[in-house]
Amino acid sequence: MDLLNTLVDKGLRRELPTREEALAVLATSDDDVLDVVAAAGKVRRHWFGRRVKLNYLVNLKSGLCPEDCSYCSQRLGSTAGILKYTWLKPDQASQAAAAGVAGGAKRVCLVASGRGPTDRDVDRVAGTIKAIKDQNEGVEVCACLGLLSDGQAERLREAGADAYNHNLNTSESTYADITTTHTYADRVDTVQKAHAAGLSACSGLISGMGESDEDLVDVVFSLRELDPDSVPVNFLIPMEGTPLATEWNLTPQRCLRILAMVRFVCPDVEVRIAGGREVHLRTLQPLALHLANSIFLGDYLTSEGQAGQADLEMIADAGFEVEGAGEVTLPQHRATAVGGGCGSHAEAGCGSHEGAGCGSHEGAGVCGSASVPQVNEVRTDLVAVRRRGAGTDLAPNA
Questions:
Q1: For the chain, what is the mean pLDDT?
Q2: CA–CA separation, 340 vs 320, rounded Å?
Q3: Quick one: which of 89, 275, 70, 261 has its CA closest to 176?
Q4: Catalytic status, residue 358
């Protein structure tokens, strides 16, 4: 297919595809999906080999958010039966982080619900970062605390944070349809603040919210312009109790095409499969590793993910290897430019509590879910609310 050959050539040269080419990837048929995966896989292997970076989420503060993001189980007015608790103490967060590191994660993503941190909150998170780094040598830490005020990114950097996550989530033209309590420009501003402070910027998207192909291409092109080191790709988990509870618009093949498009547009960036992979990719999760070079290990913010051991087995069975703590994630030309020097801030897409990255706190449900759900139907059987790990007395899934 001439389109795919052209995109591979551009990806190996870090050349931006045209909008028409990106749209054409999303428009390919299910019959061509393996060809699309194979082509994008060449670009992924060129820049990242067969390494898969593992990231681990710690939800520092859950629920009770004043923002109204439609996709988020922690939003204002949400009736989702999620865990709700205030700030974890540094030792509690460090203990949770240690479980992820023991499972193979090289980055810990600290997420807190809310519009954005107060200066006191930044001090609190600074203490948590110190506790985690004191007990887990070499671990990368990404903060995801919402909208940042002037000077806060610098303070997080001084405290030892390597990266900051804040997702754009969707296109600028449709942003007001999913959130009214802050703007798309607010999000862009926070990503730029992280960049300016020398933090490795992480910013991604959520697909499956009813957006068009044009919206997806718009947001990914906007991300390319912002130039984050890491782009988490979330697949909406329609959680009961949220406005998007009946939005089931994704198939495994559609998810693969979206990941391929992101890889072609952002060839040398850490692309992370974030929230929703278990629910929407299901048994095709291993194919997605040929497109993305990073995943979350274990559970998400408010929902359960695939068992951590199953993640590791999937990576090995697919012929990939877990990226070691001593390996630099990003290609050399990017790694040397990253302010944090953490090799890919990669972050987690924590997506700011709202969800996106962090695997989209909405989680990703349990793995192996059955057939594609019907639209306009709440499917509580496909999403398990997290009841273990941070904020509970039960051992975490890592």
A1: 88
A2: 27
A3: 70
A4: no
